């Protein structure tokens, strides 16, 4: 077998997808002297605004995909719902990392759960559901409450429904008809945490300190780092993430979302083979950001130091922050321990991720208090 290829500064990286994760990746890559091209169906995307070249074409436009891939040295993605066929076309024209196989597993909830189950990783009980009859059988098997989730294209809690005792299962199934779905046991978790792990072409791995995440309306709201959990739980969480990255034979960055139980047990919720919202703290508060780490991994470079520089907290800025008019930027910019990130999206729709704030502190409590105060100040 030939040695894996290494791509040094001056090389061109292709990014499939045009969102904020690609935007921050582009910032990290261009800072280190790489060129960045991005491909998505849209124009003037968050990534495109920071890229050397933006291609707006459909993911099923084979000629456009091949042409794009021929113009880059290595291709990665910032969003896992890229059709696998698209990535396979690209892989005939350039190096693709992570592989189409990783994408294939992680873009489909049922495949992902079956993969994790086979890997011996603990996860909530689940059943595949393709009809109202399947749903009734799955409820009988798993019990209630439970959560019904579409198998593909879910994000920020879209395509999910909690099912409680007494609910009409035929009605509950109706919006899912025609799609594959998974029923999952409802987990009474103590905390939600996530682990970012990178794995290089040489198989070396590096994990970040565990992130503690609070969701609101199924969307990530606040992350504090390091998580306020027992050191033994943090160690187990990181070991699980490394094991999953190894089993996937990943080259790149992976976020592993987990439920931490009151008895100290951990169940895996889901995987994202790319930078993750919960890792945004790292842009400001880590020796190496998750975006630089993704770059290092996909370029075949040694991984960077994942230590935090100080305790930190991240809060998302959804379109709701704009509900009362233009946010009060001056108020936040006057806070010396708060960093403002905006994604260059024109329309602040409710629930849309428009940006985030990262705050530093002597403790995570102080950092979280600053981040929340800063977000409130924006709306004042
Ligand atoms: N089985 C479950 N038990 C309890 N809470 C759950 C369960 N599944 C999901 N949730 C809650 O809903 C949130 C979103 O679920 P999930 O991570 O599956 O969604 P998603 O739509 O894929 O979102 P994203 O990709 O943005 O993380 C979880 O972080 C958790 O707070
Ligand atoms: Mg999730």
SS element count, helices: 12
Overall shape: it is globular
Order of secondary-structure elements: EHEEHEHEHHEHEEHEEEEEHEEHHEHEEH
Report the β-strand fraction as a percent range.
25-35%
What is this structure's SSE topology?
Elements: E1 12-16, H1 20-31, E2 35-40, E3 53-56, H2 62-70, E4 74-77, H3 84-91, E5 95-96, H4 100-106, H5 109-118, E6 126-129, H6 132-142, E7 146-150, E8 160-163, H7 169-173, E9 181-185, E10 191-199, E11 205-207, E12 211-216, E13 219-225, H8 231-248, E14 252-260, E15 266-272, H9 281-285, H10 290-299, E16 312-318, H11 329-333, E17 338-342, E18 353-360, H12 364-379
Helix pairs in contact: 1-10, 2-3, 3-4
The structure holds adenosine-5'-triphosphate (ATP) and magnesium ion (MG).
Magnesium ion is lined by residues 257, 269-270.
Give a written overview of the molecule.
This protein is of the alpha+beta class and 380 residues long. The chain has 3 domains: 12-96, Rossmann fold, CATH 3.40.50; 125-185, ATP-grasp fold, A domain (Dna Ligase, domain 1, 2-Layer Sandwich); 191-379, ATP-grasp fold, B domain (D-amino Acid Aminotransferase, Chain A, domain 1, 2-Layer Sandwich), CATH 3.30.470.20. The chain contains 12 helices and 18 strands. The protein has helices spanning 20-31, 62-70, 84-91, 100-106, 109-118, 132-142, 169-173, 231-248, 281-285, 290-299, 329-333, 364-379, and strands at 12-16, 35-40, 53-56, 74-77, 95-96, 126-129, 146-150, 160-163, 181-185, 191-199, 205-207, 211-216, 219-225, 252-260, 266-272, 312-318, 338-342, 353-360. The strands form 3 sheets. Strands 10, 11, 12, 13, 14, 15, 16, 17 and 18 form a 9-stranded antiparallel sheet that branches. Strands 3-2-1-4-5 form a 5-stranded parallel sheet, sandwiched between helices. A 4-stranded antiparallel sheet has the order 6-9-7-8, with helices on both faces. α1 links the parallel β1 (12-16) and β2. α1 crosses α10 (290-299). The longest helix has 18 residues, at 231-248. The chain starts with 11 loop residues before the first strand and ends with a helix. The mean pLDDT is 97. The protein binds adenosine-5'-triphosphate and magnesium ion (MG).
